[in-house]
Every structure is written in structure tokens, then in C-alpha cells.
Amino acid sequence: MLTPLALIAKRWTPTPRTLQRAALSAVVMSVLIIVTGGAVRLTGSGLGCDTWPKCTSESLITTPEQGIHGLIEFGNRMLTYVLSAAVGWAIIAARSTKPWRRGLTRTAWLMFWLVMSNAVLGGISVLSGLNPWTVAGHFLAANALLAVAVITWQRTREGDAPPRPRVPGPVRKLSWAIVVATVLLLVLGTSVTGSGKHAGDKSEVPRMPWDWTDAAHLHAVSAWVVCALAIAMWFVLRMVDAPDDTRKRSRDLLIVLVAQGVVGYVQYFTHVPELLVGLHMLLSSLMWIAVLRLALSLRERPVEETPEVPAQPDAPLTTAV
Ligand code: HEM
């Protein structure tokens, strides 16, 4: 028997452009949900809705008594539906490609499960009274979703042949080092927020148990490590005469890294004003995208020539990134 997805696939074939747009919309929505999630925290609206999944124990939606904070938090919750629609579109488009791209469909489904986990983590954050550990976990899970969205988007723009390196092995190792150091940098960023004045943005929330200044110093050191690795990558790509697009991606990473570093220091010395913290969160998403795009540009997966195949029934999905 055909599943609903297989039925759609039987009747509809997306153009490559539609497929790419669907995946790109998931990337854009992931960034938007991170930034609006930040706005919820920074405007002190984290408990704008008193409970989860309902907004109050009696109402599914925000009530006039909850005021602007209710609207902000409820708006962020509503964006989850737009994000889910973007992810759903990506799943349907991936499933409807001919021949069926199972690996791509699998990464699209992974986005769906990450959205679900984030909805639950967001709920736990509210139910735990904005505990900084759950807020940090929620932020990091949103970045995991962003990573899978970027990979899915990249996979829509290439084929399914096995990955082929475009630069020598040590350069790819350097790119892995950048990815790992960036993950550490993001985690350390949440340790600054969690011990600082914007943790959950409710003064009575117990902070992470360390000194805010020490956490900020460690976070800045890790930013310098990423910076050193990114500069090394920029030089190395020139030395090995890497393809133009990889060099451009390494340049993009340096630009966003410098901008983020400047915002980081300015907010540190100006008592973390909300607007700058929001900008720091937006730039952290853009930097994560730049790191991933650089890593993904160091390999290629050409399109395999395959004959036209009609829609196939669902079956277990397997493939590599
Ligand atoms: C250049 C790469 C950098 C990245 C990718 C980055 C990323 C982050 C992230 C992800 C957070 C946590 C956001 C949250 O939990 O909601 C954060 C917080 C923070 N970062 Fe950075 N950061 C960078 C550089 C810096 C630098 C150089 C400084 C200078 C000291 C800095 C200062 C801060 C401060 C003060 C916070 C806490 C803001 C708050 O109270 O919410 N950052 N950063």
C-alpha cells in the first residue's frame, strides 16, 4: 500500500530549483527561530506564556492579561509551525524526486525529529522556570537543527555519487578542527549567558555556578582559537590552489568571524545590552553556517547518471552525507 508521501511522489516531481528552495527555507527558518528565541529571552518574555504546550492552563493562545510578553513568546511558538511547514515541504520535495533520493529524504526527516526535540526542550525550559541549563540545551539543539538544514540544502545542490575530496587530506582535517572548535565556542558561549545577567532573563533564576568574567574570558580564548584556524585555512587554501568557491567560503567565514568578535567585545565592555546580544546570536548562526559551508565545499558529490524511474513505495532509508 502507498503511504501519503508515496502518493504525493507519484503525482508530483519537484524541479531541482523547488527542491533547493524547500531546503533553503528550512535554513532560513532555523536562523529565524534562533534569533526570535533570543528575543524571547532578552525581552524577559520566557514565561510570557505560563505553561506548555498551552499558553495558560485555560487557553491555547495568549490572553490580553499576558500583554506584550505573552505576544512575544506566543509569536515564537507560532513560528515553530512555519518552521515545521518548511521542513515538511523539504521532506515532501526530497521524497518526490525522481529517482527517489533516499539519503536526502533521510536528512530531511532528521530535521523533523530535531524540530520535535526542540519543541519538547522549549517546553521543558518553560516548565523548569527558564533554568539556564535547559535554555542552553535548547539553544544548542536549535544549532544542531541548523547544521542538518545546511547539510540538506547543500545535498539538494549536488548528486548522490560517493563524496570526492577537492583538497588534500590535511586541509580537510583542518576544516574538521574548525568545526570541532566552533562547537566548543558555541557551548562556551552558552556558559557565559547561563552565568550572566541574561540567563533566562529572570533575576530569580539560579545561574550556572561559575564566575561570569572567567566564562567570558574562556569563551573569547576559544573565539581566538577558531580565528587562528580560520586564518590558517585561508592561507592553506591559497597554497594548495584550491577551487575558487572554497576560497570564497573561507573569506566569508573570516568576515563573519571578525564581525562577531567585535560585537562580542563591545557587548562585554558595555554590560551586555539586549540589542547587541541579539545581534551576537544572529551572527553566531551565520558563523555556524559559514563553518559548515566551508567544510562541505571541500568535497563534492557529482550527479550520477540514472535512467528515469517511476515513484517507488517507502522502504528503509540509507546513505551517507
Ligand atoms: C567570534 C566568535 C564568537 C561566537 C560564534 C560566539 C557565540 C556566542 C554564543 C553562541 C553565545 C551564547 C548565546 C546564548 O546562549 O543565547 C555567546 C554569548 C556571549 N558572548 Fe560570544 N561568541 C563569539 C565571540 C565572542 C567574543 C570575542 C566575546 C568577547 C568577550 C564574546 C562575548 C560574549 C558574551 C559577553 C556573551 C553573553 C551574552 C549574554 O549575556 O547573553 N563572544 N557568544
UniProtKB/TrEMBL annotation:
Primary localization class, coarse: membrane
Protein's cellular compartments: Membrane
Topology within the bilayer: Multi-pass membrane protein
Pathway note: Porphyrin-containing compound metabolism
Annotated TM spans: 21-40, 78-96, 108-127, 133-153, 174-196, 216-240, 252-269, 275-296
GO process annotations (BP): heme A biosynthetic process
GO terms under cellular component: membrane
Presence of keyword Iron: yes
UniProt keyword list: Cell membrane, Disulfide bond, Heme biosynthesis, Iron, Membrane, Metal-binding, Oxidoreductase, Transmembrane, Transmembrane helix
Keyword Acyltransferase: no
Cited InterPro entries: COX15/CtaA_fam (IPR003780), COX15/CtaA_HemeA_synthase (IPR050450)
Pfam families: COX15-CtaA (PF02628)
A GO molecular function held by the record: metal ion binding
Name of the molecule in the record: Cytochrome c oxidase assembly protein subunit 15
Organism phylogeny: Bacteria, Bacillati, Actinomycetota, Actinomycetes, Kitasatosporales
